[in-house]
Design goal:
The protein is an all-alpha fold. The chain has helices at about 5-10, 15-25, 30-40, 40-55, 60-70.
Length: about 80
């Protein structure tokens, strides 16, 4: 199963585009790189990231990646718990 179809993205109700953005973020790409790879604007990436954060119940990129990858050791504030 690929990262874009992981149980977290399905359970959180992420759209296909939101899952793609979350997967690329989890791979370590910056917003600008994600926009370039998906051939969209940076504002579109920001829009999708805001939706990802809301749906995953997090407030930052570290929290989103941790939730997306299913790592319970990382708290929403980005600190290892």
């Amino acid at each position: 199963m690929g990262l874009s179809q992981n149980p977290v993205s399905i359970g959180a109700g992420l759209t296909g585009n939101e899952s793609k953005v979350a997967r690329l973020l989890a791979e370590g790409l910056r917003r600008e790189e994600i926009a370039q790879q998906l051939n969209v604007s940076i504002s579109t990436v920001k829009f999708h990231l805001e939706n990802v954060y809301r749906k995953l119940g997090v407030h930052n990129q570290v929290g989103a990646v941790a939730e997306f990858l299913g790592d319970p050791r990382v708290k929403d504030d980005g600190d290892l718990g």
